[in-house]
Amino acid sequence: MDKVIITAALTGAEVTKAHNPAVPCTVREMVREAKAASEAGAAILHIHVREDDGTPTQAKSRYAEVLEAIAGACPDVILQVSTGGATGMTLDERIEVLDLQPEMASLDCGTVNFGGDEIFVNTETMIIRMAERMREQSVFPELEIFDKGMIDTVIRLHKKDILRAPLHFNLVVGVTGGIGATPRDLLFLTESLPPGSTFTVSGIGRHQLTANTQSILLGGHVRVGFEDNIYLEKGVPAAGNADFVRRIARICESLQKKVATPAEAREILGMRRSQ
Known about the structure:
Layout lengths: L2 E2 L1 E4 L17 H14 L3 E4 L1 E2 L5 E2 L2 H14 L4 E4 L9 H5 L8 E5 L3 E4 L2 E3 L3 H13 L3 E6 L2 H12 L8 E6 L9 H10 L5 E6 L4 H10 L3 E4 L6 E3 L2 E2 L3 H14 L3 E2 L2 H8 L6
Parallel strand pairs: 1-16, 2-3, 2-13, 3-6, 6-7, 7-10, 10-11, 11-12, 12-13
Antiparallel strand pairs: 4-5, 8-9, 14-15
């Protein structure tokens, strides 16, 4: 039976309690959501942090506080920090968290126009700097992909030995400015990946469930959670991240797939800390 890794993206940098009161901001709320998602089957927790009032931050001190608290409640789970932060943050702000040597971190592989004047900037120079810092700190990168050209960038940097195997991708579909979330779009992305790589799929908003299911059928993994979607169905807000985890776990079971434990996820991804 194939195993599926479930990642729970607990909060993100854009959604607020005005969108859904269950969106976590405080350390206590983050621990609550992390523990519930882990117990429901999430092997990886994707971590953004906020101040208590909901303001997004990349401050190393806030990350240290949140990561320590979550690790105490969920000692086996893989903690994946965000180096995306929020639009408008400098690269120095975004990568400060890597000094904490988290087990895993996101690495955005291209610039995206999120709509209006909101531009998420990731130049090739920035990508290289993030990759080099992750290697220095023995952090396993998840390569964030919003369009097919970003896969080409990864392949080019891999040939230059800037990004090294094993390569694990997160294919983000359905976001404004990025590739769509149709079966054709997702198949195009997965067939463009280099041989031997692994992939997770993040569907944004109403695309979350269908994109997750497509990923499972294609032999991939899934990301769910409040960062990407706040509704279980149209007009029905989720009570917590665990709602999304439990739902996709049931779909895995119905498709005769096993939900991977954190230890199994590390094996599937080939995660090894540098000595």
